[in-house]
Amino acid sequence: MRVNFDFDNTLTTGDCRYWIDGEREEPDERGCALATEAYHSGHTLIIWTARPWSEANVIAARLTEWGVPYHGIRCEKGSSDIYVDDKAVNVDNVPADTQIDEVLAEVRNA
Questions:
Q1: What was the pLDDT predicted at 94?
Q2: Overall domain count for the chain
Q3: I need a surface site. Which of 41, 46, 53, 100 has the fewest CB within 10 A?
Q4: What's the CATH code of the domain at 9?
Q5: pLDDT tens digit string along 29-67?
Q6: Residue 41: CB atoms within 10 Å
């Protein structure tokens, strides 16, 4: 399955204003863990954001720093089977012991 994870407020904590020099994103542990699990479970993991393409290198650097593997980055809201972000499936509402395939099954059955 192709799974898109939003970057801001899903893989990061808070709402970092990336356009301000010196402000730095911090990883959201639960979001990063779910994304990593999706990747290692065989799903195609795309990190997507509304940020401009000029931010793609910063996103790639943060994901590498945080150890989050991914198949691609999209700097636009593209198509996917399921969206995992701070609006559709919010990582803050996923219990810590829930596996990614349980989350995906619940969304598919909704």
A1: 78
A2: 1
A3: 53
A4: 3.40.50.1000
A5: 999 999 999 999 999 999 988 888 888 998 999 999 999
A6: 14
Q: Which domain holds residue 95?
A: 2-109
With vertex at residue 48, the alpha carbon angle to CA 53 and CA 110, rounded to the nearest 5 degrees, is 160
In whole angstroms, how far apart are CA 19 and each of 1, 15, 59?
33, 12, 13
Asked if 9 contacts 17 with a C-beta cutoff of 8 angstroms, the reply is no
Amino acid at position 100, single letter: I
Find the angle CA(11)-CA(75)-CA(65) to the nearest 5 degrees.
Answer: 40
pTM of the prediction? 0.72
